[in-house]
Amino acid sequence: MTLEGGANPMLRFDTGTHSVIKVRGASEYYNFVFLQSYSPLQLLWGEWKIKTQGYIYRLYEARKGTNLAEMDATRELISYHWHPRDIRPKTPKFPHLHLRPALEAKRPDITNAHIPTGRIAIETVVIFLIEQLGITPLTTSWRDIVQENLRLFQQYRTWAD
Description:
This protein has three helices and eight strands; from the N terminus they run E-E-E-E-E-E-E-H-E-H-H.
């Protein structure tokens, strides 16, 4: 986690590049890689909130090893991006999805597409990983925890889809 100062302070959750969580689904191993940037925002009545400045959530197929430490990312399956501050001219500022490797052989026209998604909360991705891919949660109360965080995010977000 790093705090970048200046006129627009930003908190970044990463380890220099991206944070990686190695997980095992019902029948597959995955690496979930994420980078999320935040900045503090003081509300008119004096309270503070954290404003998301951008995100990258990537799910990789991982090679099966004898233990989690031996897995390595081999193929990106799905990747959600929102990087509105990216200054590269052809980089879209809207939230989008990449399906590069998943469709590369069958649909090369989609390989570099930026498929619009609307804003994706990390809680939504966690629900997808657990419910759709069979990732084992760390606690049996995961649904209550994630749903409450998602509710708060939706209540206080400054923009929606």
